[in-house]
Amino acid sequence: MDAVNLLGLDRDALDAYVARLDEKPFRARQLMRWIHRRGAAEFDAMSDLAKSLRTKLAGRATISAPAVIGDGVSSDGTRKWLLDVGRGDAIETVFIPEDDRGTLCVSSQAGCAVNCVFCSTGKQGFSRNLTTAEIVGQLWWAEHTLRRDAVPAVSGEGERIISNVVMMGMGEPLQNYEAVLPALRLMLDDDAYGLSRRRVTLSTSGMVPQIDRLAQDCPVALAVSLHAPNDALRDQLVPLNRKYPLRDLLAACQRYLRVAPRDFITFEYVMLDGINDSDAQARELVALVRDVPCKFNLIPFNPFPGADVRGSAPARIRAFAQTLIDAGIVATTRKTRGDDIDAACGQLAGEVRDRTRLAERSGRRPIAVAVRTA
Ligand code: SAH
Ligand code: SF4
Fold this sequence. Notes:
Elements: E1 4-5, H1 11-20, H2 26-37, H3 51-60, E2 61-62, E3 67-73, E4 79-84, E5 90-97, E6 102-105, E7 109-111, H4 120-123, E8 126-129, H5 132-149, E9 164-167, H6 177-188, E10 200-204, H7 208-217, E11 221-225, H8 231-237, H9 246-257, E12 265-271, H10 279-288, E13 294-300, H11 314-326, E14 330-333, H12 355-360
The structure holds S-adenosyl-L-homocysteine and iron/sulfur cluster.
S-adenosyl-L-homocysteine binds next to strand 10 and strand 12.
């Protein structure tokens, strides 16, 4: 029987696991704290667990995150890890340090089936869903690596370097709901990462039924990738719109707001030259979202090899933002971070087609470049 990877067990699952081992319930809490708060990877290090339990665990469980095959730091401090998830697939995790917070951008799938025209991950196609252990493993790895690398090193359980998580890496998180949900629960759990619901943001291209499920199961902050002011254009840019058109999507946003930890939805809107960036489209957008409390995050398009769209000029983005602002909508333009290491939004490709190169890179030596599909 395969060993159970404890990184993928949320509180309920870990409780059940500990019960199956005939151990006292409080052992689950101890284990959770050792793994997620202290970053332990070995059962032997867990000094307050009985030796007999440690031996039992060593024989049938593991704590293992995906192997790191690339580690790059951008000139702006953004750090990107490339992680091997087997069979030639790799995923990316990006840490974005800011003055008042540290944000980790986490992937949920290897590739993505939604196939938005402006997205490098989408262009690569869908490979597979990540497991909960692979999703949480990104946070576990990043948090504890950053603590070790900090000068002076951060130790103990109390201090955290990652204060915010955004599910905005590779993949459509709501197309991998079953694995994402326990991962979110671990992010929020006080015995794991203890993040508040407001500091965990899930970004979706618009999976309407799963937005409703998330509202019930684990309402975190929600970002919705809008990108177009009408169905005709959104059908082209975000093919999922043909299944869940804007009217349904905005109604789901309204329902979500009843339980959301924030009183607005964040709409993401990638600015594409001559496609969705005119003043008329900005006005259409204002009318579209009239009834939804929201903020807009305008994203400058990040180019990638093989892209067949171009980004809007900065002056166009400013004018577009101004139209929204004049209508009373908060609109910010996202700063592009980490683009010199291809870590910016939509540049995450991460697929490793050539396994020999994968093997060559399998040491933990930092590298400055990422493996690209093109
Ligand atoms: N699949 C989810 C989350 C991952 S993408 C979603 O689509 O919402 C995170 C954000 O980056 C999304 O808003 C997405 O539309 C945007 N994005 C994708 N490709 C981009 C690119 N090339 N330049 C800028 N933003 C991009
Ligand atoms: Fe998938 Fe999001 Fe990229 Fe669209 S933008 S292809 S949903 S990862």
